[in-house]
Please model this.
Amino acid sequence: RDNDIAAETMGINVFAYKLLGFSLCSFYAGVGGAMWAHYSRSIHPDQFPFIDSVWYLGFLVVGGMGGVLGPVFGAVLWRGLREAVAALVPMVAAAMPGFAGTLYSGLSLMLFALVIMLSLILEPRGLNHRWQLVKASWRLWPFSH
Model:
């Protein structure tokens, strides 16, 4: 997975598999875009800001790359943080009425950046790696030595 030279040495056509992966991802992105266009009845570039792509990539790293559950963990955490900020903003706005106008965007950006930085510092391999460690320790729990 991580070493193209080793895969070529074993006789795997890396170019064909990379092309296949890119083609499948492009196909599914096209199907998703068509479904979104049908749902919203119109498509405009302003619906898809670049910073959202950066946040999605950041939370992919937070969830952990190299596994199926990593992006799921990242998406659940990202969505949970958005909901937590939406629930927290009215309470903070009541305490500080002068900041009520820009509080949601500022607080969400700071919280997202903090989570990504702490994740990269404390768990660089992502939540999926932590989940694998918890599963392994649970499996060996009574006889952990």
